[in-house]
Specification:
Chain lengths: ~325, ~270
């Protein structure tokens, strides 16, 4: 009777184990070849072995607390000290908790995808965006500043001063890396920032003959034909990388041409605070200004609580499993 | 407290001393005569403990000069992994009949410390203390996430050696060796699972997602799956004999691959 039950059981385990292994190896290969698995493919590829592992786990637990099959029996091969009955029960409880934990983690992932809401916002200073597609809620980036390690150009933190409008309430707040702000039932994270050629602006002041001053901000390359500005301004492309910008920006030399349509009036190379004069007009080059692109994440999601509870149960299950077999010794002899 | 230059200067001679001590401990753990076994092995144990104390001082040097746990870069993590291997062995095994695995612990620590020494001599740019990226510098979870992962690596290494040796030997010794392997595997799994969970907490605090897909996290999950499968199969009599040791070997290979070759994206500071 026992033998026939054993025969039936083994092929089922065999199929689970072999298929799980093949799938795990396939994930490894896919990860290696395609480099970097991303959703939704990853869910399919990882989901199958996970389900098989769970099925395998359930199949084992279905046998009940047995000294030969539960986690408490991992040292059952040792003939000197056979596991006691309660070790088997403890192992069974451990297995059940671990299984519950795994299910909790999967439930948390599912809950987050179905009921959670997430939005990635990209803003530069002075910009506003809606939050979670709600026209009444918005986020305004007032200021963004990174901080640096002493005497280094390596960034050690960054902060953003933002104004939020949520549920008709204005709030000023500072969001920094690893310190999200909570507004109502949503959290806002400062995820990253980026610099590109578009983040740079050249600052000019045009002083008019009667003394008035008009400030201008131009992108650092190309031809500017701005109706607010009386002349056409042309800049030669220049390169500046991120490390030249902070903490003290190294101001590049700018090649500037001032033109009227079809007529070149002036061509100069300027370095702040140089200026050029054209008749009674004087144009000051004040340097550069950066407008980094800052990425925020707005989140409305409680799934982490389910996942955290699942993770805690899984760890408790593993600890109990360890206790259930750690009481057994594997002898004093060297092995 | 030590400034980075002093720490850097002190490290090299200490690494030479450490590799000598670990090497000697290994020699004493493998006595040529069976009769002389115990006394010689106790000498090996004494050398091993001395090496571990000096090793702890090297880690402290690193910590005091960088002001963060020694987990930034390959050199620092190697230093910690080799320390962890000897530490978990001395903490868990020496009274539990797994004394023989002292040679596995000493050999691992010796090889890894030798690799650290080679880095110090031939690739010092990889040894110079580095700044942590901002996301790790400001995270309270960084050390909490990394330390259990590296400790788990140490336990998996010892479990791997036990599983490997269980493929050989006589009928009496093989099951005991498998038990030794699972004895190391259990706390390894607890720590590794905790590390994945704490990584999730770190990720949640930084980006709001408790799981962020990147090569290292995907491969860590595969490693976890292999070791978890090994734990499940350990209770099955037939599978325990045939498949368990091979699963441990596969898990160890996945672990090494994850540790050394999957340092992209969020984990590129290694």
């Amino acid at each position: 009777m026992t033998k026939s039950r054993e025969r039936k059981r083994i092929p089922a385990f065999g199929i689970f184990v072999i298929v799980s292994l093949i799938l795990l190896i396939l994930i490894g290969l896919a990860g290696f070849i395609g480099a970097f698995l991303r959703p939704p493919l990853i869910y399919v590829v990882l989901g199958l072995p996970t389900l098989l592992l769970l099925a395998f786990f359930i199949l084992r637990l279905a046998r009940g607390p047995h000294r030969e099959s539960s986690w408490g029996a991992v040292c059952a091969e040792s003939k000197k000290k056979r596991p006691l009955k309660w070790h088997g029960i403890l192992g069974y409880v451990a297995g059940s908790l671990a299984l519950l934990g795994l299910l909790g983690i999967l439930a948390g992932a599912g809950w987050g995808h179905i009921f959670g809401a997430k939005q990635t916002l990209t803003l530069t200073e002075g910009e506003t965006q809606q939050l979670l597609s709600n026209p009444k809620d918005s986020l305004y980036l007032y200021k963004f500043r990174p901080t640096f390690y002493p005497q280094s150009q390596s960034v050690n933190d960054y902060k953003a001063l933002v104004i939020t409008l949520v549920d008709s309430v204005f709030t000023w707040d500072t969001v920094s890396l690893n310190s999200p702000i909570k507004i109502g039932n949503r959290r806002i994270y400062l995820a990253d920032y980026g610099m590109s050629a578009d983040s740079l602006y050249l600052l000019f002041r045009l002083v008019l003959p009667w003394g008035d001053t008009i400030p201008y901000e131009f992108p650092p390359e190309g031809v500017i034909d701005d109706p607010r500005f009386p002349l056409i301004v042309s800049f030669e492309k220049f390169h500046i990388d991120r490390t030249q910008l902070w903490p003290e920006p190294e101001v590049p030399e700018v090649s500037i041409k001032l033109m009227l349509p079809g007529e070149l009036l002036l061509s100069e190379r300027l370095r702040a605070p140089d200026s050029v004069s054209l008749e009674d007009y004087t144009m000051f080059f004040d340097g550069i200004r950066m407008r980094p692109t800052v990425t925020f994440i707005c989140l409305k999601d409680k799934s982490w609580m389910i996942a955290a509870a699942g993770g805690a149960l899984l760890i408790i299950g593993l600890i109990l499993g360890f206790i259930s077999q750690a009481v057994l010794r594997f002898g004093r002899q060297d092995v | 407290m030590f400034d980075p230059l002093t720490a850097f200067t002190l490290e090299r001679p200490l690494l030479i001393i450490l590799s000598t001590l670990y090497g000697l401990a290994l020699v004493f753990y493998c006595p040529p005569k069976i009769n002389a076994k115990r006394a010689i092995k106790i000498t090996g144990l004494a050398l091993h403990i001395t090496a571990l104390l000096i090793h702890s001082f090297v880690l402290f040097l690193r910590f005091s000069s960088t002001r963060h746990a020694p987990f930034a870069g390959l050199y620092e993590t190697l230093l910690f992994v080799s320390w962890s291997t000897s530490f978990v062995f001395l903490l868990l095994s020496w009274k539990r009949g797994a004394f023989g695995y002292g040679r596995a612990a000493a050999a691992t620590s010796w090889i890894v410390i030798f690799a650290c020494l080679m880095l110090h001599v031939f690739a010092y740019e990889k040894v110079v203390p580095r700044y942590l990226p901002a996301v790790l510098h400001t995270s309270p979870w960084f050390e909490l996430h990394t330390a259990p992962a590296l400790l788990a690596y140490a336990l998996f290494t010892l479990a791997f050696f036990a599983a490997l040796t269980s493929l050989g030997g006589n009928k009496e010794v093989r099951p005991v060796r498998r038990s030794v392997a699972s004895f190391y595997l259990w706390p390894g799994m607890i720590l590794f699972t905790a590390s994945l969970g704490l990584g999730g907490a770190a990720s949640r605090l930084a980006w709001g997602s408790w799981w962020v897909w990147n090569p290292k996290s995907a491969f860590s999950l595969i490693t976890w799956g292999l070791f978890f499968l090994a734990l499940l199969l350990r209770g099955e009599k037939r599978w325990a004999k045939r498949v368990f040791p091979w699963l441990m070997i596969a898990g160890f290979a996945a672990m090494i691959f994850t540790y050394l070759f999957m340092n992209k994206g969020l984990h590129n500071f290694l």
